[in-house]
Amino acid sequence: MNLKYSAAVSLIVALGGFLMGFDASVISGVIKFIEPQFDLSKIQLGWAVSCLTLTATLAMMLAGPVSDRFGRRTVLKCAAALYFISALGSAIAPNFIMLVLARMIGGIGVGASLIIAPMYIAEIAPPKLRGTMVSFNQLNIVLGISVAFFTNYLILQLGKSNADWATFLQFDAYNWRWMLGLEALPALLYFFLLFFVPRSPRWLAMNGLDDEALEVMNKAVGEEEAKEQLVNIARSINSSKNKERISIKELFKPSLKLVLLIGIVIAITQQITGINSVFFYAPMIFEQTGIGTDASFSQAILVGLTNLVFTLFAIWLIDRVGRKPLLVFGLFGIVVSMFVLSASFGNATYQLSEKSITECSSFIEPSKLKEIENVVYESDIEFNNALLSSVGEQTFKEHQSEFIAKAICINPWLVLVGIIGFVASFAISIGPVMWVLFSELFPNRVRGLAISFVGLINSGISFIVQLAFPWEQMNLGNATTFLIYGIFGALGLLFVIVMLPETKGKSLEELEVILIKE
């Protein structure tokens, strides 16, 4: 078995995950600047974040069937090209509409790579190491998220630098444009590296190219195992009576009832617990604790690093302790963390003293805040509404974080602990485990379509969560928003305990026999 070869190929393919993570989370540093620049409402702000996920959702439904026809590698090359176009288009966007269109182009790449990269890796990896290697994709997603948080902070600091080269490149005036444009570099690298990746052996076998499939599998798992797996693949394909194009109706056959139910519930749970609210709005959440812009961006880096470290733990553990124990442990942590966040914001109070108002005189006339001076507000909703009424929408958008910093009474460290605990629990469990389960649950003949279908649901829930979060913060408040996430996490935990079987250590063909009941 040539582990170096299969690992190297898997790592290259998983770079699509890096681009997805970077593309998705880089917007977290952008929203603070585009909201006042383009005069966006809270729903428009949510749309700027979630529009990428909308087209990703649509692309997921098509990615599997398209890859069944043209090949996994071809689809990934197209995704890399779309990432490149999106990065440049977003960086030079002259208005909100063009920014949204550019990000939607990137969303097609996100949807394709998010589905096809783990599928490809599952089809080339040795069974005993499949969980680890499929997790390479999740590792690269979190690495991309971490790098995006870091580059956002770096660009923010370069904008304040007096260095001649930083001034020449106008990091201050074009900070958010630089944040978005940097993605073009790794996208270009990914495109060229894919030329060194072979076509998927299972896709080759499905299309009658057995000699090439055997050649690739020899390199990946060794000659003896390659022959055995090729026989199993052929048996799996030939056992299907219907050799025609797979329709969506196939997924709803009674034999697939259990695996489809598991896939749908896991797909919903991963997103409805709020992970992309944290990743895409991390600086905004931290600013709500009153720590200021620089500190909120630096704490976002800590979120990214936590995500990276605990994803590494998940990769190390997933083929040792199994999928189900990780899910149970992680979902329990998610529930506890969200309840901690809800309680923290629920107990916060807001009061602008005379001294605080005077300190805000550089950007607001103190007389405009006279009506709310020394008034104690028991919730962020009450304070934000009173502030908005006093200072006007434009000033509120530009300086909300400064007002909150002067007014809030909260334990910001408890909020940080809640966020870090949530991210750690997600990263060690449902983050990487979901995609491993997706690559294992479904039989060969419908795998491409099935993963696209549950991925579509996952991405659709993600879109709704991202779109609604700024509105929820303004209208429901942080405490209620995080409480809702915690309740959904508790429901997902109950389902996993009762319904989920263990899949570790079994070949895809063995799992098909166990899970699919004709």
**What is the end-to-end distance?**
34 Å
Sequence stretches where pLDDT stays below 50 over 5 or more residues: none
Structurally, the number of domains stands at 2
**CATH superfamily grouping of the largest domain:** MFS general substrate transporter like domains
Q: How many extended strands?
A: 2
Topology as H/E string?
HHHHHHHHHHHHHHHHHEHHHEHHHHH
Can you walk me through this structure?
This protein is mainly alpha-helical. Helix 7 (130-158) runs antiparallel to helix 16 (293-318), helix 17 packs antiparallel against helix 24 (478-499) and helix 19 packs across helix 20 (393-407). The protein has helices at residues 3-13, 15-25, 31-37, 42-70, 72-91, 96-124, 130-158, 164-168, 175-181, 184-193, 201-206, 210-221, 223-238, 257-272, 275-287, 293-318, 323-346, 354-359, 380-391, 393-407, 412-427, 430-441, 447-475, 478-499, 508-515; strands at residues 349-350, 408-409. The two termini are 34 Å apart.
Summarize the structure.
The chain has helices at residues 3-13, 15-25, 31-37, 42-70, 72-91, 96-124, 130-158, 164-168, 175-181, 184-193, 201-206, 210-221, 223-238, 257-272, 275-287, 293-318, 323-346, 354-359, 380-391, 393-407, 412-427, 430-441, 447-475, 478-499, 508-515; strands at 349-350, 408-409.
